Amino acid sequence: MFVRYFLFAGLILISFAGQTGAVGSSGHPATAPATMPIAQGRVYIAPPTDFPIVERSPDGRTIAFRTADGVGMLTMLDTPQGRDVDDVFLREHMGIGMVDRLAAKLKQANADIVTAPNLEDDARFAMRMRLAFRQSGQKYEQLHLYRGLGSDVVQVTATAVDASGERLRTIERAAELLILSARTARPADNPLDANAAAAATRPAENVPLSATPLAMPRAKLQIFGPVRWACDPHDAPSGTIATYTHPTDRSMLLTVSASQLPPEARTNATVRDVAVDDLLSGRQEHFQIGDGKASPEHTETIADARFSRKTRTVYSGSGERFLVTTRHVVVQNQTLATVTTLSTTADGATMEALGDRIAAGIRAAGR
User: Average pLDDT, stretch 132-151?
Assistant: First the structure.
C-alpha cells in the first residue's frame, strides 16, 4: 500500500468542540493572503477570504481556517507520498477503507452518529465523503475532499457546527474552492528565481559602496553604505542605527541595527553563542510593509557561512508581494549587527545581494 493514510477527522472531533472566534498561534486574528504556500512551498493554495487562519503546523503541511463566528472550519492537510499519485489511484487504495476508518474514529470519540460516513460521486475529486454526528450537545456536519497532486495527497475537511441550508452550503463551497485551488509549486513562485533575469540588469545590484565608512562609535560599528542612497543615521548602542533608502524608489529600503554582547563574549565562545541566540530569539523588526496590510506568506532560513543567521520572508497584500531578508553577523566578538532589506519581489534578488555585501563588510569602530 503506497498511500500514507491521514485521518484528521478524529482531531477535529476533539479540538473543534467548544471553540469560538478566530485566534492564531500568537493569540491574534490571522487573515490569509491571496495566495500562499503550504508544505514548505511544495503546494500553493488560494485560501478563503472569509475564513481567517487559526492554526498552522510547524512543517506547514496542516493549516486550519475558521469563520469569525466559529460555525465553520476548514482544515487542509498535505501528505507527500514519495511517488506520483492520481485520483484513480487514490480511489482504488483509499475508498471503502477510509470510510471504515472514519467510522471507527467516530466510535472511538464516543460521538452520536447522525449520518454514517458515505462516499458521494464527484468527478472533480479523488474522493468526496460526507458524515454527521452529535457531540457535547452540538451537531457537526463534515465534508471530506481528497485530491492527488503530483506526488502529494491533499485533503480538505469542512466542519459546520449547528449549520444547515445555505449556511452549510456556503461552508462546503469554500472547502471545494480551497482544494480545487491547490497546485504544485512552479518556478515563478520563488521570487528570486522568477526575477533572476530581470534583477541581473537592475542598477541597484551593482551599486558601489562608499569608500568612507559611516562611523558609529556608540554602536561600535563602521558601515560601508550604498553610494547616493539617502541615509538616516542614529548612533546608539542598540536598535536601528542607520536607514538607507533608494534615491528614486522608496520601496527599496535597507536598515542596520546593533545589539551589544556582554563583555565575557569577547573571549568566551560559549557565552557569545548563548548571547547571540538570546538576542535573536527575541528580535523582531518593526516597519510598515506596502500599505501596512501585507501578511507573511512564508519564511525560510538561508544557509550562508558569512552570517550567524539569515532569513527570507515573503509578504503579500493589496495585489503586491514583498521580500524581507535579514542577516545577522557578529562583529569583533562584541556587537551583533543586523542588516535587513525590504523591496518588492521584483527587486528581491537585487536587494538581497546588496544587503549581503553591506552586512559582510561591516567592521568594528576604529578598525
Answer: 90
Contacts of 36 (CB under 8 A, 6+ apart): 44, 45, 47, 297, 298, 316
Picking from 3-17, 40-54, 80-94, 287-301, which range would have the lowest pLDDT averaged per residue? 3-17
Q: What is the DSSP code string of 171-225? A: HHHHHHHHHHH-EE--GGGSHHHHTHHHHHT-GGGGPPBPSS-EEETTTTEEE-P
Q: Which of 240, 207, 208 is nearest to 221 (CA)?
A: 240
Edge-to-edge strand ranges of the sheet holding 43-45: 36-38, 43-45, 183-184
Burial of 230 per CB tally in 10 Å (0-12, 13-18, 19+): exposed
Cα separation of 130 and 169, whole Å? Answer: 13
The DSSP secondary structure of 271-328, one letter per residue, reads HHHHHHHHHHHT-------TTTT-EEEEEEE---TTSSEEEEEEEEETTEEEEEEEEE
Band of pLDDT at residue 14, cut at 50, 70 and 90? very low
Q: Does pTM surpass 0.85?
A: no
- At 38-91, the pLDDT tens digits run 876 778 888 888 888 888 776 678 888 998 888 999 999 998 887 778 888 787
Residue type, 330: V
In the predicted structure, residue 106 carries a pLDDT above the cut 60: yes
Torsion sign, CA atoms 67, 72, 75, 76: negative
- Cα separation, 42 vs 76, whole angstroms: 14
Give the whole-angstrom CA distance, residue 63 versus residue 289. 24
Q: Shortest CA distance to 224 belongs to which of 243, 209, 205, 241?
A: 209
